[in-house]
Structures are given as C-alpha cells and as structure tokens.
C-alpha cells in the first residue's frame, strides 16, 4: 500500500523551503531585474547566493555534484514549496530547462563531458539551454525535425533553426537535438550534441514575446549555420536521440508538475484570503455559494494533483521508467492547475487581471504549461494508443 504521509524530516524540509521562498525570494518578484522576459542573470546569481546561504541550492542533484541527493518524492515536496514563487526554482537552481539538462547529463554524459559541462553547471557558474523545438513543427512531433548534421573529418557540422529555446541568451552551453546524416559507414539518425553557446555558427536571431515570464532571459529563436561540433561532444550514442529524449522528458514532466503545483497553491492562498476579507452584498464573498464552490473545487484539484505527482514519483523511486504514468500526470495536472488559476483570477475579480498580486502571472504560466513538454492533445493520443494496444 502506498503511503502519502510526510516523514518528520520531510515536514521540516517543507517548512524550510516554504519559509525561504516566501520570506526571502518572493519580495524579489517586484525587482526591476524580474522582467517580462524573465529574471536577468544578475538577479539569478543573487538569488542563487541566497539559496546557498540557506543550504537549499540544487536540491535535486546527487551529492557528488553538490546537491542534496533527494529521492523523487522528497524532490516533489521541495519543488512544490519552491514553486510558491515563480522565482523560487530559479533561486534554488532547479528550474527548467536546467534541472532536466542536469539529470540528462548525469545519466548519459561521459566522465569527460561531466567534468567540462556538468561540474560548473551544477555549481551554478553557468546555465544551459535545450535546443529541440523547431518553428516547422518539430516539437510535440520531433520526427519532423529539420536540423541536421553532416560529418566533416572529426567534426559534425550543424545547420538548422530552433525556436522557443528557453534561456538561450547567456547560457553557457546547449544540448542540440538534430538528425545526423549517415556517411561512408559512419552511423546516422536522431542524435544529441553538446556545444558551448559562444561557438562560431550559433546566432540568437530573435527574442520571442511569450505569455509566460518565469524563465531566465526568456525564449529565443536560434540559428545554427555551420556550427562545428567535435565527435567527442556527442551526448550518448549517434542515432539514440529519441531514447535520450525520454530519459530527459519523463522525469522532467513530473518536475514541471511539482513546480507549477506550488504556483497554483500560492494563487489559491491569495484567492482564499481575498474571499475572507472582501465583502459584497453584506458578507464576505467566500460565504456566497458560487465563490465557496470555486474555492472547494480548487482544494479538491490541488490535492488530486499532489497525490498524482507523488504516485508517479514513487514509481520513479522504485526504478520504474514511468514514461506512460508521467504522460498521464502531466496532462491531468497541467489542465487542473490551469482551472485552479483561472478560478483564482475570477475570485479576485478586477484585481485578478492586474499585477497587484502574482496571480495574473501564475495564470499565464499555467496556461503555457498546457503546451510545454507536449500539449495535452498529444499526450492523450499517446495514452489512447497504449490502452488500445493493451486492451
């Protein structure tokens, strides 16, 4: 039987992270360095220092890399508490895309690659980005990928365009998902490459204006024009890119859920407090049936999301790959948290569409979450294929 009770150590850790997030980090939400394109690197570095001082830096990483070595369930508890502020995961160095890239490098990279990229990355000296999505449709369906690489001596030469590349400006390196052209007995197929972002042949061609604003330096279109990547910078094996995508995305879907759950909890707390204080027609609005029902629906869905996340996290802790389960959880949680955030805006009324509270931003973030790491429709299609095959 699965238990969802927190241990005393987990309870204490949750209190520590919530206190740090709300007392130390949340006041920075009004900092001018927290821009419409996300926090700047200057702000990120300052917040990272505060997290180190609090002993809460990189909680998801193995101890070998300076992390806290938590299991997936404890990570879920920590990430939810960090997610109470959009800046919490940034401060604790566990935001996307960095957290997913750290996990991928830890599992797939060679020791030489780990020493070159993961070591300074884990310490927060550099950031990363993940170059997979393309403007022509290679996102939810990566088989449509057009970015390609050809052999040239001991190098692979990359050409293509990626977009919605989170944090590209200021990143120390990128992981590039591309198709390697087989040549003269040398293997080809979908492949991941690692490149420093200041390498010749990488151009940041356009900064995108997006609905969300919680990722360091926002989202970019990136052009690869003759980028030379040494064969030694192949991540894993040539032709095995789709397998490594799942190594990255299955747990990353869950960690997205963990962080955004915290944001929805924060929005619900703000709406609940407002419903207690704001009066209309002779009594607090929370005592009106319509508002009370929305608050109850929020409470129900937040707890359902939490239990779903912990269930999938326990599967990962048991060594289960949990690809199918993470897909189900990501779909259900992203849709539910969007409904929670939407209700919170409605409860706050006019205030809900202003920047007087963080609720409007949380609403925008959870709307984008329904697309990130695969839109709900694609996950439902994949789920239906699996259940039809197994029925």
In short:
The protein has 391 residues and is α+β, with helices and mostly antiparallel strands. Helices cover 48% and strands 17% of the residues.
Number of helices: 11
Which CATH top level class of the largest domain fits? Mainly Alpha
Calculate the mean pLDDT score and round it: 95
Give the overall silhouette. Answer: globular
Count structural domains: 3
Q: What is the CATH homology-level superfamily of the largest domain?
A: Butyryl-CoA Dehydrogenase, subunit A, domain 3
Radius of gyration, taken over Cα atoms and rounded to an integer in Å: 21 Å
CATH names the topology of the largest domain as Butyryl-CoA Dehydrogenase, subunit A, domain 3
**H and E order:** HEEHHHHHEEEEEEEEHEEHHHH
Query: Biggest β-sheet, characterized?
Result: 8 strands, mixed
Total number of beta strands: 12
Protein name: Acyl-CoA dehydrogenase
Family: Belongs to the acyl-CoA dehydrogenase family.
Subunit structure: Homodimer.
Pfam family, one: Acyl-CoA_dh_N
Describe the structure.
The protein is an alpha+beta fold and 391 residues long. The protein starts with 7 loop residues before the first helix and ends with a helix. It folds into three domains: 8-95, Butyryl-Coa Dehydrogenase, subunit A, domain 1; 128-239, Butyryl-CoA Dehydrogenase, subunit A, domain 2 (Beta Barrel); 242-390, Butyryl-CoA Dehydrogenase, subunit A, domain 3, CATH 1.20.140. It has helices at residues 8-25, 41-53, 72-82, 88-91, 98-108, 111-122, 241-277, 289-317, 323-348, 359-369, 376-390, and strands at residues 34-35, 38-39, 128-131, 148-152, 155-166, 173-180, 189-196, 202-208, 219-230, 234-235, 279-280, 283-284. Strand 11 (279-280) and strand 12 (283-284) form a beta hairpin. The protein is 48% helix and 17% strand. Residues 239-387 form the Acyl-CoA dehydrogenase/oxidase C-terminal domain. One of its GO terms (biological process) is fatty acid beta-oxidation using acyl-CoA dehydrogenase. Homodimer.
